[in-house]
Amino acid sequence: MGLAIVSSDYSFSRSKVCGWDSRRKRVSVSGGNMDEIRIPISSDSDVIAARREGRAKAERAGFKGTDLTVVSTVISEMARNIKESDLPGEMVISDCTENGKIGIVVATRTVLARKSEELMIAHRLRPLMDECTIYYKPDETIVTMKKWIDVWAEEPGPARTV
């Protein structure tokens, strides 16, 4: 799937981001338990917290190896982009299931963000994730990225001799 850019009336809601609450905590969403993290981003310590908590969430969801590193990198870069913009912003990290797939959603909301900056970060990180959508509203920009667990990936095992 490619990058979707939408300039419509999109709300940063649970149904769109696979889970969201106004506080950083676990919540239960109808249709299953969605473990989510919501982090306001304004300092380097927030960027570090987002990366740490996001990596732990991805590991609990079942990501391993390179995919775990990729998810952590995307979380860190998206959070750092908010922090460096000096604009109010926040991030939500949630596990998600869709059509039998298990994955993780990383979404950011930045108030009064410049479209060019959000588009640049999305294009740079897009090859690392499976899905990317940018929603523009007059007063905010929402970037949502998803990564699905590759069920066909096989963990390397010990060498076998015949």
What does it look like?
It is a single chain. By secondary structure, the chain is of the alpha+beta class. It has a single domain, classed as Histidine kinase-like ATPase, C-terminal domain (Heat Shock Protein 90, 2-Layer Sandwich), CATH 3.30.565. It has 4 helices and 8 strands; from the N terminus they run βαβββααββαββ. The chain has helices spanning 14-17, 44-61, 65-85, 115-125, and strands at 3-6, 27-29, 32-34, 36-41, 89-98, 101-111, 131-137, 140-148. The strands form 2 sheets. A 6-stranded mixed beta sheet has the order 1-7-8-6-5-4, covered by helices on one side. Strand 2 (27-29) and strand 3 (32-34) form a beta hairpin. The radius of gyration is 16 Å and the shape is globular. Residues 1-33 have low confidence and may be disordered.
Summarize the structure.
This protein is of the alpha+beta class.
Largest sheet: 6 strands, mixed
Tally of helical segments: 4
Strand arrangement within the widest β-sheet reads: 1-7-8-6-5-4
Round the Cα radius of gyration to an integer and report it.
16 Å
Task: Considering the chains and any ligands shown, give keywords for the structure.
162 residues, alpha+beta, Heat Shock Protein 90, six-stranded mixed beta sheet, two-stranded antiparallel sheet, 4 helices, globular, disordered N terminus
